[in-house]
Structures are given as C-alpha cells and as structure tokens.
Design a protein that fits this description.
By secondary structure, this protein is of the alpha+beta class. Helices cover about 30% and strands about 25% of the residues. The longest helix has 26 residues.
C-alpha cells in the first residue's frame, strides 16, 4: 500500500484499477488526521478498502462520493459495512452506467458544508460528466477535490443522457470564484492553477464544438459515424468509440440552442 502525503490535511491512496478510462487508477483521498473524511472510496476492491481502513483506523467520520460511476462509489458500501461511517453523495437522474449499490445516508446539495474541528469542506454541485457530480472545496488548503469534473492528463467523457455538455461548461465556470490553489482530481496528480486549467478546458471544448459545427455545415446532414471521423480526426481511431459519447453531448447542446436538429440517426445543421 502506498499512501501519498499531499498536505498536512490530505493523503491519497490510489486503487489498482488502472485502465484507458481511469488512468493510473481511482484516487481515494483521506482528509484530516483525527476525524477523517474519505472522498471516493473507489471500486468494490476488498484490498483497496482494506488499505483505506488500515490508514484511517477507527477515525473515519464520513464517506463522500463525487459521483456514482462504477470506478468511484461502489467501495462506499464495503467501507460503510466495515466502519458504519455514513455515506454522503447525490443520486443520478439516469441509471445508465451508475453504481446500483450506492445508498446515501445523507443526500448532499450545492452549498452544503461538512464541518470538523480540523477542517471545513464545502459541497459544489458540478453536473456535466454526471448529473450528480460533486466537487468538494477544502478551505484550509484552498484545494478542490474535482473527481471526474477535471482530471489530469485527459479531458473527461460527457456521455448522454446523464452527461450534459452545457451543464459541464457552466459547472467549470462555477469553480473559478473559489480561486483555489490546487485541484485534487479523481485520476492523476495534483494540478496547479485551477482557473487556468478551467480556461483551457472551456477553450478546448469550444474548439471541438466548432469542429462539430464545421462538419455539420460541410455535410449538411450526417450520422455519428461520419461526424466522429471528421470532428475527432486528431484523435487515435481506437478512441473514436469513446469520443462518440462526447460528440453526442456536443450535438445535444447545439440542438438545445436551436442550431441543429436530429432526424432519425442523422443530424442537420440549422445555423
């Protein structure tokens, strides 16, 4: 077991579930020394849960989940059974690709606070990657636990129907007023200058949206297979299957804005 000390209040344990989706694995964060909040206990891997329990002893106060995708929250049930610590999070609007074992002892909402004598965590509802996605702002370290809202080394997949591109872009901007010093992502290492990261992500998504608009304008009408080859011509074709989800999210945003329309399996540009 490797425990990485990130600050006086924050430690990280990474689950052994590395993949193309999870990078080096799902990060579990331990906040506090005496009254510990566990953020994202990860997948239901007994060895990972054992490592969390050993690192915390009997001091786990609560278990928070950023969202209920299968690589982030299933471990909550196992850790709750072992420690009786309450599980806190939010339920998704759609059940597709969600952790069916998730049960919240407390449903969190935007602006909620988790106050301990060592620290204070503020809840930020950041839908987009998932309808129930939450970030957590640690005031004492001026740090945001960003889950899959922002992760190191890759942009996140926005997969409809639970994923929504407009909500994602709005939620990115929602982080900027905190003027945090660091991001602690669900996958990868700490990231500096969060507001610059947000600006880059918004710019990148709008660059991709322009490619969607250009492709629709060129084709007049096209299906997802045609569009993904054009819009993601700078991405390895082996990743086009994953890219289709975010492409559909871009298209749905354009449809919501009355700039495009879908007819059957084809999308038409309205302008």
């Amino acid at each position: 077991m490797t425990i990485t000390e990130l600050s006086p209040l924050v430690r990280r344990i990474t689950a052994g579930n590395s993949s193309v989706f999870t990078g080096p694995g799902t990060n579990t964060y331990l906040v506090g020394k005496e009254e510990i909040t566990v953020i994202d206990p990860g997948p239901a891997m007994p060895d990972h849960i054992e490592n969390i329990a050993k690192a915390c002893g009997d001091d786990i106060k609560q278990i928070l989940v950023t969202h209920t995708h299968p690589d982030h929250s299933p471990g909550a049930k196992l850790l709750h059974q072992r420690t009786a610590a309450p599980v806190m999070g939010m339920y998704a609007k759609y059940k597709q690709n969600q952790d069916k074992t998730f049960k919240a002892n407390r449903v969190l909402t935007d602006g909620d606070e988790i106050k301990e004598f060592e620290y204070n965590l503020k809840v930020i509802h950041t839908p987009g990657h998932a309808s129930n996605h939450l970030c957590f702002y640690l005031e004492e370290e001026n740090l945001i636990f960003s889950g899959d809202h922002i992760m190191e080394g890759s942009t996140v997949v926005i997969g409809p129907p639970d994923g929504n591109m407009k909500e994602y872009l709005d939620s990115l901007e929602k982080l900027k007023p905190f003027e945090a010093d660091l991001l602690a992502p669900g996958h990868g290492n700490l990231m500096k200058d969060p507001n610059s990261v947000v600006d880059w992500l918004v710019s990148h998504r709008m660059f991709r949206e322009k490619k969607v608009v250009d492709a629709l304008t060129e084709f007049s009408k096209a299906n997802l297979d045609q569009l993904v080859k054009k819009v993601y011509d700078d991405v390895d074709e082996r990743l086009h299957g994953i890219a289709r989800a975010s492409l559909l999210a871009h298209l749905n945003k354009l449809i919501e804005e009355d700039k495009a329309v879908s007819k059957g399996e084809e999308f038409h540009w309205k302008g």
